[in-house]
Write a structure and sequence with these properties.
Elements: E1 11-15, E2 18-23, H1 26-45, E3 51-55, H2 62-69, E4 79-83, E5 85-87, H3 98-107, E6 114-115, H4 125-136, E7 143-146, E8 170-174, H5 177-185, E9 198-202, H6 204-208, E10 213-217, H7 223-231, E11 249-254
Parallel strand pairs: 2-11, 3-4, 3-7, 4-6, 7-10, 10-11
Antiparallel strand pairs: 1-2, 5-9, 8-9
Helix pairs in contact: 1-2
Length: about 260
């Protein structure tokens, strides 16, 4: 994989314990994040048999996923994938499903070892939370990819349901109306009424347990929440603010998402 097109070095700074990398363009952000992920995963595969990754979805991840799935040098057959969240009651064939997104953008492109999906249409949702929690506990998470929600949510840990000391790894939550509208705005659903009101999510402690965290946040529409994440008090009013206490976390911004800093 040729990473030379990322060229320009990012501006690197720090907010509390959180490393922040700011790029001129969103394409450079995605390519450099893929370069860093490749280097990290390659080093892990030199010393351990399996690597476990949690992937995020949404428009912020598309360029990154395209870049990293084009890497030929990684032994994908030794990598196990998980994902952050899924709507309750939705099938894997629904275009708005995160399983649909990840099957098309990741699983169909690389010879991975295993992709453990949250079964949004499971008949026993609480049992599904337990099943997925047990899979997560089978080994450490080496890398967790994140996006950043409009209200500071990580995965579906909305301000109304986020808990920094959650005792659960996976739970069911009610989505805020604004979050459902943003799924329509992102063209994943045709109408607000079509967006499921509840979802499965990995909790904040589950996310923060990862050995490395990459949070990718391009675009001017994220500038306000980026500023809140980095400058507001660290609390559940902006769940992503918890990243400032994670020494293993890196926030990737472009000049547009960093424009209010």
């Amino acid at each position: 994989m040729d990473f030379t097109i990322s060229l320009q070095s990012p501006h690197i700074t720090r907010y509390d314990d959180l490393s922040v990398r700011i790029y001129q363009e969103d394409s450079a952000l995605a390519i450099d994040a893929a370069r860093l992920a490749h280097s990290y995963l390659h080093s892990l595969l030199q010393k351990q048999e399996l690597v476990r990754i949690i992937l995020a979805t949404g428009n912020s991840q598309i360029q990154f996923l395209e870049a990293i799935t084009n890497i030929q040098e990684l032994d994908w057959s030794r990598i196990i994938f998980f994902h952050l969240d899924e709507y309750l009651g939705i099938s894997a064939e629904h275009p708005g499903s995160f399983r649909y997104y990840l099957q098309h953008k990741v699983a169909a492109k690389i010879p991975l070892r295993e992709f453990y999906y949250l079964q949004g249409d499971a008949l026993q949702p609480l049992e599904e939370c337990d099943r997925y929690s047990k899979l997560l506990q089978q080994g450490s998470i080496d890398l967790c990819l994140l996006g950043l929600g409009h209200n500071g949510h990580l995965a579906f840990n909305e301000p109304t349901v986020a808990n920094f000391a959650d005792s659960w790894l996976v739970k069911l939550v009610k989505l805020e109306d604004s979050t459902r509208q943003h799924q329509v705005d992102g063209n994943y659903f045709a109408h607000w009424e079509n967006v499921p009101p509840y979802a499965y999510t990995l909790t904040i402690p589950a996310i923060c347990s990862a050995k490395q965290i990459f949070c990718l946040v391009p675009g001017e529409h994220k500038a306000k929440v980026v500023k809140q994440t980095l400058t507001n008090p660290i609390n559940v009013d902006c769940p992503a603010s918890i990243l400032r206490q994670q020494k293993q976390a890196t926030l990737f911004l472009d000049r547009d998402s960093a424009s209010l800093l």
